[in-house]
Amino acid sequence: MNFANRLMKASMLSTISIASLGMGSIAYAQDATPQSEEAAADENVIIVTATKREQTLQEIPISVSVTSGETIEQAQIRDILDLKTVVPSLRVSQLQNSSSSTFIIRGFGNGDNNFGIEPSVGVFIDGVFRSRSASSLNDLANVQRIEVLNGPQSTLFGKNASAGVISVITRAPQYDFGGSVEATYGNFNAFTIKGDVTGPISENVAFSVDASYNRRDGYGTIVNLDEDVSDRNRWTARGQLLVEPSESLKIRAIVDYSNIDEICCVVSTLVAGPTAPAVFGVGGALSTDFFSYDIFLNRPPVNEVDNYGGSVQVDWESGPISVTSISSYRELKNFVDQDVDFTSADIVNEIRDQQVETLTQEFRITSDFDGPINFLLGGFYFDESVKQDSSLTVGAAARPFFSLLAGNPAVFNGVEAALGLPQNSIFSPGLLTSEAYTLDNTSWSVFGTVDFEPIDGLVFTGGFNYTKDKKDFALSQTSFDELGQINLVDAFIGIATGGAVRNRAQFLALPAANQAALAAAATSAANPFLGLAAFQFQPPFLNIPNAVEDGRTRDDDLSYTLRVAYDVSDNINAYFSYATGFKASSVNLSRDSRPSSTDFIRGTRGSNFLAPPSAILDAGLAVPNLSTGSRFAGPEDAEVFEIGLKAQFPGVSVNLAVFDQSLKGFQSFLFTGTGFGLSNAEEQSVRGFELDAKINPAKGLALTFAMTYLDPLFDSFTAGPLGDLTGERPAGIPEYSISTSATYTHEFGGSGNRLITRLDFNHESNTLINNGLPTFGANNFKREVNLVNASSTFALSNGLELGLWARNLLNDKYILTVFDGVAQSGTVSGYPSQPRTYGAVARFKF
Questions:
Q1: CA-CA distance, 231 to 217, in Å (whole number)?
Q2: Is the Cβ–Cβ distance between 790 and 834 less than 8 Å?
Q3: TM spans, by residue (predicted)?
Q4: By percentage, how much of the chain surpasses pLDDT 90?
């Protein structure tokens, strides 16, 4: 079914579901109600919809950070990646390409290097769930506000919000004609232009259109190719239609398309390991100055993302009862072609071609009674298919490179002769793997909340979410690594017996004494092949589903929220809550997907001859060098105790939340040097607090201060890729994160002209980047962040605005993250932070 037909189906679903009840509301419409507009006239009153009802920031009993559209303009926040500088509880990191990013809240989150991994932080744009970070990275245009909800939000937002939610709310079409256009030019030849226009079509129909284009030269250089890297080349367009055939009915339709075509990203070398001389020995090079932004690759990386979709939201009101329906269909296409050894030697390259199709339907009924009891009841349906075709390709330098590491340029010729392989077949140029992965996920949930207010100002809330989740996945891979097809222990036994033993059955038929003698010799220094194990990068892959593994997960969960909120006075509100969260099983869609130890027991050095009986072995499915790992990680179960205080006085507002949060079954996902390991940590917890304050000490001056303190712990993590981490502090989680800003607006008499100057500072305390690396081992790589951003805008009364801006004004340099060098044991690679950027902006609002 093509996109247009699917979108039409979504529209019909939304309209029919509302019309069938004959009632509805504007309970979650993104434009403000008249009451909200009146409240918003006070600059200290912020309207949010974090509970899927409109409330002020002071009233809402949730720890939530709100970034207004005005702040986004002034701070030159381009996309969600930049949002971290103003929200201290949020961390966002871009990884090896434009479409791979990690969202983390309160220290919990997962990387997006694997499309089978469900997010722990849900991203919603205008109420529509974006299931992969690549579909939420388009530039922010026409944004009204962004709400970051901290802690588990599964009760109202479902199975992908066990750590929190990022909710982007854009401006709905208006009946007054207007709009804006903005152009920016900056260093690295950066140029952006964006605009929007809105207005009436008829008395009860309005429209809006917005678009943006963002282009920038790369701030890094591929030295040997004389090519820029870490550039920007993206655009997005969106159209909206608002139809209000009656006072009680509102329909908002949105279609959007975004495109990314970039060369990303800068990957530098932190530690040049013992393999580095071999890189230079085959005529290659690798970066040696981490923050020079000069790197070496054998080909420019290709990152292409097409992301498009549409949604229809219908709100219908009937007295105190309202109904909301949101239907959506989206498609994401992601293509990556990358040199993954990150040297100029042509050793190994990877291609990923990924497609995601997502259909969602949400339906809510909400009450607004005058009495003490009100409720929200809803349902959500999610249907998604993921397809990935990928491959690894061996380059012309691979065989010479690995020959140098082996210490003998002719070593593989001798190995080929001894093992009966064709000459020059090991690490010959061409395909190393060819992979095809699919994942089908359907889930549904029923959720609701009940508010009981026995006396004015005291509200008891109970909420629940029951979810059923079903995943079916199929992974097939052909490995062309000639050396990897041979188990070195079993091959030795075959040669030692003159070819009489060619399989496990023949080995087991030997007398026990002969078996023991052969096994001892094959696993000792008497076996000259054992040293070659380090060169067996891609052994045969056991496809799934198979006779033992069904390739499916089935999860269900009941999450709930219990909360009491009390208005201590007209200016002070307090709340206490207990909530649980849930994330369904995630699937390891990678070449590192391996059977669990319950289905297969690996023999000594991967030998199938020496392996004990297991389901896979007994079924005749075991391939050479099969090892155990994970096909999927089980569900995450979150729990949080939180107490909060919100105070608002003239010119001053303070919000404080203290929490104790834990996650059982945290889905740990770690790069292992040649692939990705997925496993469950038994329990990880974090205690801390979040403080958010704003003060207006003088006319035109606004000061903000936000701080997050986190004290995390691996309560139990015994079986991860790094061994037993129980009792250790999870790395990558700063103890203190601070975001503070000062904004001064100077008005020039009664002219209406203003000069708006903003200075903000973002700090993350010094912390270990990770708990070690699978190949490199323990390390002390740390990061500390101190970002200063500034802007000054002269806004004229006629709508023209002229300004200057700078991000990372003091050119702070820090490491984003690190990983084991690909096929380069002892080498550590990483991502340096973005350098200082600055420019000028011209904006006209009409």
A1: 5
A2: no
A3: none
A4: 77
HSE-CB at 103 with a 13 A cutoff on CA atoms is 34
- What is the rounded distance in angstroms from the CA atom of residue 106 to the CA atom of residue 151? 7
Q: Where are the beta strands (DSSP E) in 480-614?
A: 552-567, 572-583, 586-587
Residue 112's pLDDT band (boundaries 50, 70, 90)?
Answer: low
Residue type, 281: G
Q: Quote the CA–CA distance of 687 and 665 in Å, as a whole number.
A: 18
| pLDDT tens profile 640-678 | 999 999 999 999 999 999 999 999 998 888 777 667 778
* pLDDT for res 41: 39
CA distance 4 to 279: 50
| Pairing mode of beta strands 143-150, 164-170 | antiparallel
Please give the full DSSP string across 257-297, using - where no structure is assigned.
EEEEEE-----EEEE--TTHHHHHHTT------GGG-EE--
Strand partners, 587: 632
If you average pLDDT over residues 70-82, what whole number do you get?
Answer: 83
Q: In whole numbers, what is the pLDDT of the chain averaged over residues?
A: 90
Between vectors from CA 66 to CA 687 and to CA 177, what angle results, nearest 5°?
Answer: 165
Q: Report angle CA 603, 604, 607 to the nearest 5 degrees.
A: 60
Q: Which fold has domain 3-481+537-594+629-845?
A: Maltoporin; Chain A (2.40.170)
pLDDT digits (tens, 9 = 90+) for 552-565: 999 999 999 999 99
CA distance 433 to 418: 24
DSSP assignment of 577-602, as one string?
EEEEEEE--EE--STTB---TTT--P
Provide mean pLDDT across the span 561-574: 96
Q: Which of 15-24, 73-82, 103-112, 481-490 has the highest mean pLDDT?
A: 481-490
- Cβ neighbors of 717 (< 8 A, separation 6 or more) are 666, 668, 681, 682, 683, 684, 724, 725, 726, 728
The residues pairing with 759 across neighbouring beta strands, listed in sequence order, are 742, 790
Strand order in the sheet with 101-105: 90-94, 101-105, 108-110
CA distances from 253 to 39, 326, 418 (A): 27, 10, 68
Of the pLDDT bands very low, low, confident and very high (cuts 50, 70, 90), residue 44 is low
Tokens for 513? 């004494």
Burial class (CB in 10 A: 0-12, 13-18, 19+), 310: buried
Paired tokens of 400: 């010479």
Which tokens hold the place of 552?
């499916």
Question: What is the spatial distance between Cα 220 and Cα 230, in angstroms, rounded to a whole number?
Answer: 6
Cα atoms found within 13 Å of the Cα of residue 371, Cβ hemisphere only? 6
Q: Is the dihedral of CA 76, 77, 81, 85 positive or negative?
A: positive
Place of tokens 């904006």: 843
* Highest mean pLDDT out of 95-104, 372-381, 532-541: 372-381
787 touches 793 (CB < 8 A): no
Cα separation of 391 and 437, whole Å?
Answer: 11
